[in-house]
Amino acid sequence: MTDTWTTLREVLLPDGAPGRQPGRELERRLREAIRSGRLRAGERLPSSRDLAGQFGIARGTAVAVYRQLGAEGYVVSQHGSGTKVADSVAEPAVPAETGPARSWRYGLGPGLPSLAAFPRSAWLAALRKGLADLDDVELGYPDPAGLLPLRTELAGYLGRVRAVVAEPSDLVITHGTFDALTLLAGALQAQGHREIGLEDPGSQEQYELFANRGLTGRPIPVDDEGIRVDVLTRSSCRAVLITPAHQYPLGVSLSPDRRRALLQWARSTDSLVIEDDYDAEYRYDRAPVGALQSMDPDHVAYLGTLSKTLAPALRLGWMVPPARLLTDLVRRKRLDDRGCGSVEQAALTRFLSSGSYDRHLRRTRLLYRDRRDALLEALAADLPDWRPIGIAAGLHVVLQLPPGTDDRALTARLADHDIRVAALSRYTHTGPATPGLVLGYAGLTPDRLRSAVRAIAVQAGG
Questions:
Q1: Is the peptide bond before 201 cis (omega within 30 degrees of 0)?
Q2: Contact between residue 120 and residue 360 where contact means Cβ atoms under 8 Å apart
Q3: Which of 266, 292, 346, 407 is a plausible cystine mate for 130, CB 3.0–4.6 Å?
Q4: pLDDT per residue over 164-217, tens digit each?
Q5: Domains by residue range for the chain, with CATH
């Protein structure tokens, strides 16, 4: 251990104050210490019994803290060897999309649409007309559920495009998916939930988001038919977050059998399924399958966002929760931020009603399909041993690498040469991960994508 301290408590609680919930405070401070580098990779941590004694908590609580941090990839526990800080965890598990943007020579990180394709003129026109539509009174504090004209337009759009079953009064306008998840997490925690099922592989940030609301994320494995409902059923979770139309990051769709099994589980246990429909508008081989929510609105909370179709900077999304949660979620929205901005909502109302959103989607579907095709052709020519999967939809592909490849080391080597990609293993929380890369292709032209693949091939060969 570090020679400047004798107990972990000295590092994590220099003020000596564990807070009202010492287990959660311990988990949070351990995570921060590892990410900041104060606890170095490979450093041995106290046993669960010792940890419990230092912080005055039950041993079972200490075990749960280590288990959660292990699921998030921060620590590694081995029988007979104790618990230690995992290697290479002083950075977020997935390349961060926050903070000042770095200009990469080849930016192939997942999670963004083509920001250059944002329809600035059409949006400015919608903004001017939407603002003109607002009465003076509507420039005051907004309805926390959202402007009724926007909810009306969205209810029609979602019913037409995604088969969502919703009246305008059923919708809540949000600042995007994370805002919706934060509201839902608070509602679940208040109802007595202490954990939530999360897809594995899946987003690392979801674990942090739910932990901040008192919920432990439980990894549920995903295979080529989607989330393993049999594993979920054996767990103690009574809520689960899934991406059924286009699983993130693997790109698979939830199979019909799994859909039925998942909803049967939700009905039989009165559980909640949170459906993140983040990029279902982009399907290239056929029409996308309708939203899961349409099969059971009483047990599915449907989430949508503009972050993948227009731009994250707009900070607009929507939620269609089960009716039993609606009043509480609107109350929480009011208390959290008093609602989303009315001017932006009015602009989106105009953008939808004028047909501009539909036109933008038609144009960008063609744009992204051309870019995907260019990427796949370049991969077949320059990296034929790398197998792309999840290619039928979305804004990224997963490349399965030859067995034994260290995808994290490769990702770091590519970053040294100004090429941004994401290691698939960083999305995995349980068991050995198939080595791979997650490549976002929406932001580069076909020529740039071909050049990027050639540059990756050079570094991979080195």
A1: yes
A2: no
A3: 346
A4: 999 999 999 999 999 999 999 999 999 999 999 999 999 989 999 999 999 999
A5: 8-85 (1.10.10.10), 106-112+359-461 (3.90.1150.10), 120-354 (3.40.640.10)
Q: Which token pair is 391? A: 């290619």
Task: Residue 295: count other Cβ atoms within 10 Å of its Cβ.
Answer: 16
The beta-carbon contacts of 220-228 under 8 Å, at least 24 apart in sequence, are 221/430, 221/431, 222/247, 222/250, 222/252, 223/252, 224/252, 225/252, 225/254, 225/255, 225/257, 225/258, 226/252, 226/253, 226/254, 226/255, 226/258, 227/197, 227/199, 227/254, 227/258, 227/262
Q: Could you write out the DSSP letters of every residue in 137-155? A: GGGSSPPTT--HHHHHHHH
What is the spatial distance between Cα 395 and Cα 387, in angstroms, rounded to a whole number? 17
Long-range contact list for 23-28, CB < 8 A, 24+ apart?
A: 23/57, 23/61, 23/62, 23/64, 23/65, 24/211, 24/214, 26/51, 26/55, 26/57, 26/62, 26/65, 27/65, 27/68, 27/69, 27/211, 28/211, 28/212
Helix (H, G, I), strand (E, B) or coil at 196: strand
Q: Please, are residues 238 and 196 in contact by the beta-carbon 8 Å criterion? A: no
Question: Quick check: 325 and 187 in contact, CB under 8 A?
Answer: yes
Question: How far, in Å, CA of 419 to CA of 253, rounded?
Answer: 29
Of 239, 217, 197, 213, the closest CA to residue 21 belongs to 213
Task: List the one residue out of 62, 52, 58, 55 whose CA is nearest residue 18.
Answer: 55
Return the structure tokens found at 377.
Answer: 């052709």
Predicted confidence (pLDDT) per residue in 383-425, tens digit:
999 999 999 999 999 999 999 899 999 999 999 999 999 999 9
Instruction: State the Cα–Cα distance between residues 417 and 437, nearest whole angstrom.
Output: 16
Provide the 10 A C-beta neighbour count for residue 449.
25
Buried b (16+ CB within 10 A) or exposed e, 399-430: bbbeeebebbebbeebeeeebbbbbbbbbbbe
pLDDT in tens, 10-47: 567 655 555 566 777 788 788 777 876 678 777 888 88
d(CA 310, CA 327): 29
Rg of the chain over all Cα atoms, to the nearest angstrom: 23
Residue 264 phi/psi, 5-degree rounding, is -65, -40
Contacts of 176 (CB under 8 A, 6+ apart): 305, 306, 307, 312, 315, 316, 317
CA of 303: how far to CAs of 80, 374, 405, 450, in Å? 44, 31, 36, 34
- Predicted TM-score of the model (pTM): 0.80
